[in-house]
Amino acid sequence: MRTVHFVVPDGIADPVRPSGGNTYDRHLSRELGPHGWTVRERAVEGFWDRPDAASFAALERTLRQIPDDAVVLLDGLIASTAPEVLVPQASRLRLIPLVHMPLGHRPREDAARAREGAVLAAATATVTTSEWSRRRLVELYGLPADGVRVAEPGVETADPARGTAAGEALLCVGAVSFEKGHDILIEALASISALSWRCTCVGSAGRDPAFAAGLGRRLPGERVSFPGPRTGADLNRSYASADLLVVASRAETYGMVVTEALARGLPVVAAEVGGVVEALGEGAAGTRPGLLVAPEDPAALAGALASWLGDAELRARLRRAAGERRESLPRWPATAAVVAGVLAEASP
Q1: pLDDT tens profile 94-131
Q2: How far apart are alpha carbons 136 and 240 in whole angstroms?
Q3: 136-160 pLDDT tens trace
């Protein structure tokens, strides 16, 4: 067995802070073993959403414990923000950033792009989670296309959601934040308040408390609930009781909640951003298992939701496509196989 040192943010298993990136990292740690890799997970303390000097010092201490010429897989939340620590180590260690979301995905983020680009240019190889993200990294930083590999997120087997005839149970899954577009969703729902629906927004409100508090003043009555973060069986029950997943995000590298919904046969209405089109895919007959709308457009989102709620034939068609797509979704062992291949190529 060969060894990979997997450098991750501290607390990736914290149920209060679930995220797609944390879920991906945990599955990868478990699934690399059958592909011949012993994973030494090295959690680094720090506030990696907004790293400070103490965060960088903790990362430097962690890297000093890793022997020369070792293969080091780095969660992108850490890798993309710490060039002053990582670039000097690139001559000693075989660094492979795992980029969940390119930091330069918004305009005018020159400083973030410069820092991320410095690390990726010094890395042995880079892994990302969608073809959209691979193209974006190559475009942003002039990386060689064959040096950035896509390891699409997998899904776990899940029972199909039962669904209801009227399709009124809407579900949104994600941290309550500007990036996830909850303000867009609330505005869209307010404009279709004459229709019959209810919406459950599962996710932590702790990432941006001021933003979350502001949403409360805009809610259209009591039909929108915010039960907080859910994981495991609680999250499964949320999907099982839903009719439709709604994704109003301003940015998504892939959109793991999309495939989590499709794994249960749930159709999706989503903003067409990043890798969401890849995650949504198609059913066996070539029909998308959902509707895509323009990003940051509450009227377009409201129109799609009204179509879903008002058209039984559309609901039936999208549910059939979601059931077909459910059968073709990638699984986590396949994700790990891709990453294991990259690690092997980077090995001494």
Answers
A1: 999 999 988 755 555 777 888 899 999 999 999 999 99
A2: 35
A3: 999 999 999 899 999 999 999 899 9
Residue-wise pLDDT for 229-260, tens only, equals 998 899 999 999 999 999 999 999 999 999 99
CA distance 317 to 282: 12
Domain of residue 246: give its range.
169-328
Q: What total number of domains does the chain contain?
A: 2
Does residue 199 lie within any of the structural domains? yes
35 shares its domain with 51: yes
- Residue count (the chain): 348
Bridge partners (DSSP) of residue 75 are 98
> Do 322 and 16 form a contact (C-beta atoms < 8 A)?
no
pTM beyond 0.85: yes
Same domain, 187 and 150: no
Note whether 70 and 180 are same-domain residues: no
